[in-house]
Please model this.
Amino acid sequence: MKRWRRAWPLPGGAILGFAVADRVCTSCWTWFSPTLGSCPQCGAPFTAANAAPPLGALTTPPRVEPSPSPHAPPDRGVHWLRWGLVTAIVATVVLAVFPMPQLGLWGNPGCSLPGATCTRVLFIGDSYTSVNDLPDAFADLAWAGDHRVQTEALDEGGWTLAEHLAASESATTIDSERWDDVVLQEQSQLPSLAVDRSGSMYPAATKLVAMIRQQGAEPLFYLTFAHQGGWPEEGLPDYPSMQAAVDTGYMGIADQLGVPVAPVGAAWETVVGGASHPAMWQSDGSHPTVSGTYLAACVFYATIFRQSPLGFGYDDGLPSAEARSLQTVAAATVLGDPAYWGLLT
Model:
């Protein structure tokens, strides 16, 4: 008789693993219960010599794991775990020394990386600067051109240059960094009226330019775009007439002080003068849409770096064809005659 260790299935798929002392007739190989005295198939008698051992002897022997071969390949799980830990440690060290912004993975990395060439630009203006975050759009466009820039803005809505001059924060901010360029943007209506230029804009601009130059930075005027419907109450009935007045206001003080100009208004006029163009003004007829801000960012890129933004992949979410068209206008406006805008090549 031979003994077999069997696992009996239980309801639900469970397994009952225990030893059962069955018998097999060696004459006819029929299974039969150990309680029988002879084989029920062929009648072979059961004797003490082939009796099943006591139940205690049928317990499962302890499992002995085979010793690994000295030449067995290393466990792959351990191998990948080791590499995973090493990678995590290296990544932690890299990010501690060079955080994500410094690596430029989330937009322009700015000037935080020691030794890297970087341009620092301070914007002083009002909502024409803050709406759609012009400084940030300019920074992202600059990064598309492989330029690190750091920007900051003082851009309270509706503020004039005279109000910025009177605010202590202006002088503090101008002194706080080694700025390369400081952009000055007057409230949108003041440059278009002679009385406001002479009584407010020009005196404030003169003092701010002196402060900026004293800190070794270059002042830069942001020649803005006019209102879509002009300013009829002041004798400027439409956009072209108001834009011409705004141009006169900025170019007058720029020539007087020898300050270069970022000609956003001139590029804007070219765009809206086309047969078809994207919406440049918001519904209020004053503030820029994303397209308007993107054009301004392209103009500032060409003005500050004296380079064309044409072909850059950064489009601020605009259709690629529209972004390319605005890039083209900005480059042609600034770089077509840089001397006219006071830019030294």
Notes: The chain has two domains: 5-58, 104-341. The first strand starts at residue 5 and ends at 9.
